[in-house]
Amino acid sequence: MNITDTEFGQIFPFYFQSDEYGQITQTGPSLQRFLQRSDQGKSLFAQFTFKSPAINDLAGLDNRIENIFLIALTVEPGLVLRGQFLRLQHHGGYLFIGVPWVTDLKSLSALGLSLKDYSLYEPTTYFLLLNEAQRSSLEKSENIKGQLQELNESLAKRVERRTERLSQINDELVASQEKLRQEMRHREEVEVELRLAQKMEALGLLSAGIAHEINTPIQFIGDSLRFIQEAANDLQKASIEYSELIDTNQPEIKQKLLSINKNYDLDYLLDRLPESIDRAISGVDRVSTIVRSMKAFSHHTESERNLANINEGIENTLVVAKNEYKMIADVETHLSELPNTHCNIGDLNQVFLNLIVNAAQAINERFLRHNLRGRGKIIISSAHVDNEIVIKVKDNGCGIPDTIKEKIFDPFFTTKSIGQGSGQGLSLCHRVVVNQHGGSIKVESEIDVGTEFSVHLPITSPEYSYEEATS
């Protein structure tokens, strides 16, 4: 239910509100007439004297917040308000709701006030009227009767206005209920997204563990192969020197050696062994590169940000994602020298992976749709522009229709068939780049020409909380 400041002032005409530092920010209409005459500033302790309980700072107010207060205006000491303070949780300020503490209409009039300055339903007005009726003569009673009539007429008009307002509030309540239903549906969608994220987190941890377990034996194999390579080179050199030492005047020995060489095919082995070892070492180096990239890509840092090199993240992601694009497209990189940046590199790696996989899938879709031959192209670039790092991923795929371009970052939005896409990839990209790192992500696309995603990251990332980043 929404109530405007004007309506709140009609209900509590002597209320005032302050911020967390005790500076008055809003007042009711009846109280405002007095405060606007004051030159004491906006501090509630300058504008009011706390008579009961006697306090003079916010700490005392917090300690006695449950009490009923009597406070006198500095500009009009005779006007004493009786009421209660409330602590406003949503912004840390204070709200005072009260009324003038008087016992008769004469005292009220002396302060320049009347019953019209009270709210419609304030019981004090009836007490003052009854008290005045007991003390006044019949002549004054007739005058009071007129005032009552005036109040009744005012009441009738105000009740009529309240009835209209209640009708409006009822309409607002219906709209709020619909909004609540939408929020509940959104919450269910977020819960599905959270479960998916938890599964991906578990998979990442598992991948990191496997990569760690593979890394050690691969190092052993690599070291052993390099030893064998050196040994084979030495054996090849030794064989040549042995051959040079053979006495050509001893044909029997020479013939025996030639026979041994032929039986064991030593010349072929000595010729091909170094090449085979080189291929094995190259394969081990390739596996080591993949393992290192998997460890870097799967690095689990939760919400923690550290200094990281964006280019290294892109290169590691390309190694991990190679199986997605190697049969479809060639990748061209233009990575400029970049400063290290405070970021969550694990989450950014996931962004790069999603963009690269989407590019490969878009190229594959276009080539299949138009029965094209050849290979597509993915161009990845990075640059330091002003105080930002800009990463671009461009493809010559099927493109994105203008009709859905505004929706692609929405959670669960996808144009892929059931089972081929969850609608979470670009939504995750937007959340990581915008919500978590305070950057931006833009897209330019043309049907059957291609798409370019631009990720803009501030070099000094703002300090967003983990809750804000995942909300």
From TrEMBL:
Keywords: cGMP biosynthesis, Coiled coil, Nucleotide-binding. Residues 209-461 form the Histidine kinase domain. One of its GO terms (molecular function) is guanylate cyclase activity. Residues 138-172 form a coiled coil. SUPFAM superfamilies: ATPase domain of HSP90 chaperone/DNA topoisomerase II/histidine kinase, Homodimeric domain of signal transducing histidine kinase. It catalyses: ATP + protein L-histidine = ADP + protein N-phospho-L-histidine. It comes from the Bacteria. InterPro entries: HATPase_C_sf, HATPase_dom, His_kinase_dom, HisK_dim/P_sf, HNOB_dom_associated, HNOB_dom_associated_sf, Sig_transdc_His_kin-like_C. It holds the Pfam family HNOBA. This is Histidine kinase domain-containing protein. It comes from Halioxenophilus aromaticivorans.
